[in-house]
Amino acid sequence: MATSERLVITSRINGEERTFLADSRDSLLEALRERLNLKGVKEGCNNGNCGACAVILNGRLVNSCCVMAAEIEGAAVETVEGLATPEGLHPLQQAFLDEAALQCGICTPGFLMSSKALLAENPAPSDEEIRFWLAGNLCRCTGYDKIVQAVMAAAEQMRAPK
Ligand code: FES
Ligand code: FES
Question: Exposure string (b/e) for 19-41, b if CB count within 10 Å is 16 or more?
Fold first, then answer.
């Protein structure tokens, strides 16, 4: 039987340095939800297929159920909890609300983080590019058209001169 050990992990979570205890067998998903109480990160399949657990790790989109917590020592992690600011919602969050791009909301944090990673790489994606990028995120309620419209609207707003 595999044994586990306790790890002390320090990383930058949503811009803030956090030190926490984790089990050496914890996935990043488990550590975020259970050790750091970041319940916005959702568990769907727990095997890399649904994207509900997507977060941004050192600037790269990952499914947190497929990353070990131990791997984030010294790393920077962004979750949905870090999107809004005291000034208001992130343009992606606002666009998902405005376009009614969610119903139960379980998939939404993953879509938001995936979309954020997309817009960081491609600020003006086409409909096809959005659909291709979001192919790893599954939604069982809303359908994808409104989600794609929301990402388009947020991208436009984020490109607009301030
Ligand atoms: Fe991680 Fe589904 S819970 S991809
Ligand atoms: Fe329910 Fe997407 S809104 S799974």
Answer: ebebbeebbbbbbbbbbbebebb
